[in-house]
Amino acid sequence: MGDMKYAELADLYKRLEKTTLKTLKTKFVADFLKKTPDDLLEIVPYLILGKVFPDWDERELGVGEKLLVKAVSMATGVPEKEIENSIKDTGDLGESVALALRKRKQKSFFSQPLTIKRVYNTFVKIAEAQGEGSQDRKMRYLANLFMDALPEEGKYIARTVLGTMRTGVAEGILRDAIAEAFKVKPELVERAYMLTSDFGYVTRVAKLEGDEGLSKVSIQIGKPIRPMLAQNAASVGDALREMGGRAAFEIKYDGARVQVHRDGDRVVVYSRRLENVTRSIPEIVEAVKQALKPERAIVEGELVAVGEDGRPRPFQYVLRRFRRKYNIDEMIEKIPLELNLFDVLYADDESLIDTPFHERRKKLEESVEENRRIKLAEQLVTGDVKEAESFYKRALELGHEGVMAKRLDSTYEPGNRGKKWLKVKPTMEDLDLVIIGAEWGEGRRAHLLGSFLVAAYDPHSGEFVPVGKVGSGFTDEDLAELTKRLKQYIVRQEGKFVEIEPKYVIEVTYQEIQKSPKYRSGFALRFPRYVALREDKSPEEADTIERVAQLYELQERFRARG
Ligand code: ATP
Question: Tens digit of pLDDT for each residue in 217-235?
């Protein structure tokens, strides 16, 4: 029960900003969760992450910097121009909001201290303001908050609204903090989170029901499940051996993974990063309702763009569909999609994640009536290497990426990249790498970032280690787009070189991997070229330094064989 002063949360943000030590951050968050009243347990974890809603919630505040400045001006009487200039000076919008609030002539007589509930409820109202006059309403709601906000509170409200909170608290710290606060096992917190992707819910269960409650958490329609992932195998034969001589091989479609939740007429589709993409693909939503027999179900598949010749088109086409907000009908014609279903996690009020894969596949086949847009992923169950190889060869000839091998008896492991799913693709595949630096271009391209320092992920240290500089393969539009996106994440500039916060993943092709002392990783890509922006991947999902080493080994093995 109860509420809490927003000033206490502002104080937490401040303390988090002041330390880089993970253990200390964890302790601060844990202490805060301990004193959080039950009524706020579902929202405080998101606010701590600098968010209002989970990423998979469709609601967005829809407030840009301009509108925010207007609201601050209205609340304080400080002219908009002055606030804008101050932002240019400080380079930090939150700081400038605090400055403006300090200049405010006088607080209103009726001023009430802000509470977390009030701030959160206002955020919800802002997100839900739609249609005519909504910009103005959003602005007024915000102005009302700023009117009652202390300078420090205003700073963090502004950062939350714009999504620029930088307290260094990510999912890992929050998970450990929940465990510490309520004396529950971190593995159980992790498990519950992988199943529901909902820190609010998990925090509540941890506090009110402890380990026992957490271990009973199961998947739920309407809450996306972290996808199970695959490791690499060098060949179809290796994959078969790893799986004990017999496995299910499936075409590895090259599109975008989606998870479809159906509850009667309501269908929600999540992307691989668990964003709600339902609105962008109405024809698939309709087709799913036709195809799925169970009224309540969760299925997974790969959404692929198909060309007129029936062959798959590059996955970027699907991402273009996801991004489109208007004139969607036109896109349905331009970029036709096909959904290849490969798993079922829930059907007829029963979770299937602990059911062996071959039974899930059977259930999937029973549950789906294929139509023009919805298909079952093509599958071959075999113990015969030759047969598996020709399946693989055919997949490549048809223009697919390769094949997936799946252990027949494997359960579904949310969020895990284990050996129960193995992918086989031609070697010297492209790498997905994180941009961590760049150089400004020259001459005509002086206003654009031109050459990018890219890094692989090291899951052990959590660091991004450079493996090369990518300076070719871009069109002018690519560079303009990348510059626009990356600019806000520049953390340091030295001459022409800028250091960039690891936010964006790009796909990079190259001629070979060399051993090189030039980079700390010990590897350097030879002739790297840009292929595409991988918006569907977070930096932690980029290729790892182990993968680079593994590809190097494969390359050398091939070379030795001639
Ligand atoms: P990649 O860059 O190779 O796609 P990834 O990191 O995106 O790798 P992986 O775990 O390596 O993901 O490979 C599994 C991905 O392959 C799935 O997330 C899914 O998007 C895609 N996929 C295509 N066809 C299938 C299939 N039949 N079964 C499972 N996943 C498939």
Answer: 999 999 999 999 999 888 8
Which residues, other chains included, contact 188 with Cβ-Cβ below 8 Å and sequence gap of 6+?
A: 211, 214, 215
Q: Is 56 in the pocket of ligand 1 (CB under 6 A)?
A: no
Phi, psi of 267 (to 5 degrees): -125, 130
Kindly report the number of other CB atoms within 10 A of residue 551's CB atom.
21
Q: Which of 46, 302, 22, 326 is nearest to 176 (CA)?
A: 22
Question: In the structure, what pLDDT confidence band is assigned to residue 354 with cuts at 50, 70 and 90?
Answer: very high
Q: Output the pLDDT for position 491.
A: 87
Query: Residue 379 is inside which H or E element, if any?
Result: strand 379-382
Q: Does the C-beta of 464 come closer than 6 Å to ligand 1? A: no
User: Is 505's pLDDT higher than 80?
Assistant: yes
Instruction: Quote the ligand 1 centre to 423 CA distance (angstroms).
Output: 7
180 alpha carbon – ligand 1 mean position (Å) = 34
Catalytic residue among 223, 252, 406, 420: 252
Percent of the chain with pLDDT over 70: 97
252 is catalytic: yes
Q: In this structure, what token pair is assigned to residue 514?
A: 């060399």
Q: So what's the pLDDT on residue 562?
A: 40
The phi, psi pair for 146, rounded to 5°, reads -65, -30
pTM comes to: 0.79
For residues 98 and 118, give the distance between their C-alpha atoms in angstroms, rounded to a whole number. Answer: 19
Ligand 1 atom with the smallest distance to the CA of 377 is: 27
302 lines ligand 1 (CB under 6 A): yes
Distance CA 427, CA 6 (A): 54
For the CA of 536, the nearest atom of ligand 1? 7
**Minimum-distance ligand 1 atom for the alpha carbon of 257:** 20
